[in-house]
Design goal:
heterodimer; A: alpha/beta; Rossmann fold; Alpha-Beta Plaits; five-stranded parallel sheet; about 25% strand; globular; B: mainly alpha; 2 domains; 13 helices
């Protein structure tokens, strides 16, 4: 016979206001196997906890029901109490939630009290069938993987590496750095973007704890928090990085010279063997197999001839490696929306002088294709009137995305400021819907741009068309209630940030969720902003949603600190409330494997002795590290072999029966 | 309803026909130059205004105006200076200073309105045609007596403008209360006040005469 103790909490008047707590206690004392009942004004307080421990020890209780608030609130607290102050197993505890789902939702005791009694009766029935459960410690592999080497990934990698843990930094492009080195200046302080980013890139490359893998992609992630087995494909570079000195001879001689440069946003050309920009890290050349004559047609080999280090290797192949990591930081960044496909009214890409904000960054950059002179792409003339259009793609659910891309207001102001600075007799018109400059020194920056002479027009541009060599932008200035048009020489579109290509595949690979817009979802928008719903996987930078550089760097630091916390601890406490497979009942159908959202179940062969014969059967097996105890498999299992420890079928049925037959 | 009416009136007034688009790139540079000069005269930087509308919302004459005081400065920002000069708003402004007192950016709208009135008078294109006349009579009045004499002011204005009986209905009540005194009060330093006004008017005349741009604008 079990000895059950029931403790009913008044929670001040929170519960006692609409539940007759003494009546609940009186009813509980008559329930089967209940040998002790007590009430308390605040059960969670120190004296409240002490009185529970004392009652348990004095009355030799072996099961405990606490009727109080939601288990989300204090279950962990009371479990700790049982573990530390009593001999009762912490999982011999049931919480009857008579506050959030009872006293708070009812107005009078006539409803609240009977409901509370029913809830307590169900908890008493269930706790009787609870079994002792024990947590175990799973060791953590003290290495981290950072996916994506933009400023977020670099910062996270540096922070983790500085804490003393080895980090692998995976980047799918040929250089680390992401978008930041492409930018000219950073708002609001106007520091040179490359000047503050490239030292970080070099620092990452030189850090003894960081291994950089460029042209690499994560192919497969197996395992669970603390022990992820990650398969990385490092694509063929056709250049032996150990031999390459980065001298650039190959680039000078390469006959393929008309490939649009990704780094310069198509405003200049690169060669087939190339380094995207001089400060690229690693500072080595790579052959682009799609454009190399030797690799596409089999005739050329110039780079191989001029390379004094003998680093060119046309027979290079992809390398696939699998390594184990304790934590993963996803920092895959963003890309700009392909506006040309969705905005035919802005020319749809027909006008070379309608450019994106990132192209403008390259145009004003001293190391860009025009060496920092603002010259429009079509005829390399200085534009005397520039129109900047904000929210191109952003806040446009019909054609683009519904969200605000957050950084554009500021960089639009920055572009206007830079243009007026470089072309003092120029005119700059900014079409805007709102000016959102929430940040330190941000609004001051915008106001300065107004003083520079930028004219802000409140409205979206409706159409851009060409007339007499000018790009006529027609929009409404709703502030003066006028349809206005501007004859522009160049138009800059501040386009929306969207998740990069491949984000969906990566989400499946790493097993993290994405929101409706495609950004990776954090575990809690406010309280767990860098964690994901998969333990051990953290988010940094724009992979989680549009943000500017300061926020990205801050979030990267936060993600790193979470990863460092996990790696420092060295082990994880397993959750014992996971699925248990009764292999005697399991038919090996695999329904549980299909339904498991965490990939925790797999089918294995098992040898068993049946009727004194050895038989081999296929049965399901649970990975204790991956199982999150959601219970989906227990519902899917037809023979009833899968059962959730702590929420066993028997206990649940007891609850239901108690409720139904009381 | 009334705001809608005003809006429509504004549009019709602005462009002659409703919603004719304007091309900001095709406005003549003389507008920008004139705007710069007048704003400097008023000590106002139009770029300071971020169009929050706090001025217009508190303006006591907005009911009678064609465009709001916010829109006056908006037109200047857009380079539509001629439209600002020819609007009624500057003439209706009573310089109460509510807008300036509340403006987060300390834009001195009363000063700007006054400068716009002067510019309109110079160009001879005052939207309120009695405006310059009233100003002249008012200044004459104060210059002569050193203090405003309502009776004389009203009488002269009504005779000159042809609005013979404007505000005449209030005269008996005002007289009964001794507000239209006619006792010929002159402050002791009236001569000094008169000299001061004369000096300023001479200055303004000289500035107007030397201003070729303004003449050009008047000619146009």
């Amino acid at each position: 016979m079990s000895r059950i103790g029931v403790f009913v909490c008044r929670c001040g008047t929170n519960i006692a206001g609409t539940v007759d707590v003494d009546a609940v206690a009186q009813a509980a004392s008559l329930m089967p196997n209940v040998v002790y009942v007590d009430t308390n004004k605040y059960t969670c307080s120190d004296p409240g906890q002490a009185s529970i421990a004392e009652a348990i020890n004095e009355n030799n209780l072996d099961h405990v029901v606490i009727a109080s608030c939601s288990p989300r609130m204090h279950e962990a607290l009371f479990r700790k109490l049982l573990a530390e102050k009593t001999n009762v197993n912490p999982y011999q505890l049931e919480i009857a939630n008579i506050r959030e789902q009872c006293s708070w939702v009812h107005k009078d005791k006539a409803i609240g009290t009977p409901k509370a009694i029913e809830l307590v009766a169900m908890a008493v029935a269930k706790v009787d069938s609870n079994v002792d459960l024990h947590t175990t410690q799973i060791p953590v592999t003290r290495r981290a993987l950072v996916i994506g080497a933009g400023i977020a990934g670099i910062q996270a990698a540096l922070d983790i590496a500085d804490a003393g843990f080895p980090v692998t930094l995976v980047e799918r492009e040929t250089t680390i750095g992401g978008k930041m080195p492409m930018l000219d200046k950073t708002f609001p302080t106007m520091d040179c973007s490359a000047c503050i980013c490239t030292p970080k890139m070099s620092e990452a490359a030189a850090h003894p704890n960081i291994t950089i893998k460029t042209l690499s992609e994560v192919e497969k992630v197996e395992g669970y928090v603390g022990n992820f087995d990650v398969t990385i494909r490092e694509k063929a570079k056709y250049v032996d990085y150990d031999k390459c000195t980065g001298c650039g001879q190959c680039e000078e001689k390469c006959p393929q010279r008309k490939i649009p440069s990704e780094f310069n946003q198509g405003l200049s050309f690169r060669t087939a063997v190339y380094k995207p920009f001089p400060q690229a890290v690693p500072s080595k050349s790579t052959i682009d197999p799609a454009h190399c004559r030797m690799l596409t047609k089999g005739t050329c080999g110039v780079c191989s001839k001029v390379c004094q280090a003998g680093a060119i290797n046309y027979d290079d192949v992809d390398r696939v490696t699998t390594e184990r990591y304790g934590a993963i930081v996803v920092a895959t960044g963003y890309e700009l929306i392909n506006w040309a496909n969705i905005y035919p009214e802005y020319g749809g890409g027909r006008y070379p002088d309608v450019i994106s904000g990132l192209q403008f960054e390259r145009l004003v950059n001293a190391s860009g294709p025009t060496e920092g002179h603002v010259l429009r792409p079509s005829d390399r003339k200085e534009p005397k009137t520039v129109v900047i259009i904000k929210c191109v793609g952003s806040r446009d659910p019909h054609k683009g995305v519904s969200y605000c891309s957050r950084a554009c207001c500021m960089y639009a102001a920055k572009h206007a400021h830079q243009y007026l600075d470089k072309v003092p007799d120029g005119r700059c018109y900014v079409f805007y819907m709102d000016v959102r400059c929430a940040g330190k020194g941000y609004d001051e920056f915008y106001m300065r741009t107004l003083q520079d002479g930028a004219i802000y027009l409140h409205g979206r541009v409706s159409r851009i068309y060409e007339r007499d060599g000018k790009l006529v932008c027609v929009g409404e200035d709703t502030l003066s209630d006028q349809v206005v048009s501007v004859n522009a020489d160049m138009v800059v579109l501040e386009t929306a940030m969207v998740p990069p290509e491949g984000a969906g595949t990566l989400a499946t690979t790493v097993n993290i969720q994405r929101g409706p817009e495609g950004w990776f979802t954090e575990a809690h928008p406010k309280l767990r902003p860098v964690e994901t719903n998969t333990a051990g996987v953290y988010l940094a930078g724009t992979a989680q949603g549009p943000k500017d550089i300061p926020d990205t760097v801050a979030q990267a630091g936060a993600a790193a600190s979470k990863a460092i916390g996990l790696l420092c601890r060295g082990y994880i406490q397993s959750n014992p409330m996971i699925t248990h497979i009764d292999t005697a009942k399991c038919s090996g159908c695999g329904a549980c494997v299909d339904i498991c959202p965490y990939g925790a179940l797999s089918l294995v062969e098992m040898t068993a002795r049946e009727n004194s014969r050895k038989v081999t059967r296929v049965v399901a097996e649970v990975n204790a590290g991956l199982c999150q105890g959601c219970g989906a498999c227990t519902v899917a299992c037809r023979p009833g072999a899968a059962d959730l420890l702590g929420f066993g079928d028997e206990g649940i049925m007891q609850e239901v029966e108690t409720y139904a037959y009381r | 309803m009334s705001s809608l009416f005003l809006q429509c009136r504004y549009r019709v007034w602005r462009t002659g026909d409703a919603m004719r688009p304007i091309n900001l790139s095709e406005e003549p540079a003389t507008q920008a130059q004139a705007a710069k000069r007048v704003c400097a005269e008023a000590g106002v930087n139009p770029a300071d205004c971020y169009q929050c509308g706090k001025c217009a919302a508190g303006c006591p004459v907005s009911e009678s105006a064609d465009i709001s005081c916010r829109q006056v400065i908006r037109l200047i920002q857009l380079g539509e200076f001629d439209a600002a000069v020819t609007s009624r708003m500057p003439w209706l402004c009573v310089a109460c200073g509510t807008c300036l007192a509340r403006c987060p950016q300390s834009v001195d709208l009363p000063a700007l309105n006054a400068a716009l009135c002067r510019e309109a008078a110079r160009r001879g294109c005052a939207a309120v045609k009695e405006g310059p006349l009233f100003t002249d009579i008012f200044l004459d009045n104060v210059q002569k007596r050193g203090v405003m004499d309502e009776t004389m002011l009203a009488a002269r204005f009504n005779l000159s403008s042809g609005h013979l009986f404007q505000d005449a209905g209030g005269a008996p009540t005002m007289m009964a209360r001794g507000l239209l005194s006619g006792d010929g009060y002159r402050p002791s330093d009236a001569a000094e006040v008169g000299a001061m006004i004369e000096r300023l008017r001479a200055q303004a005349r000289a500035a107007g005469a030397s201003d070729d741009e303004t003449k050009e604008a008047q000619r146009l």
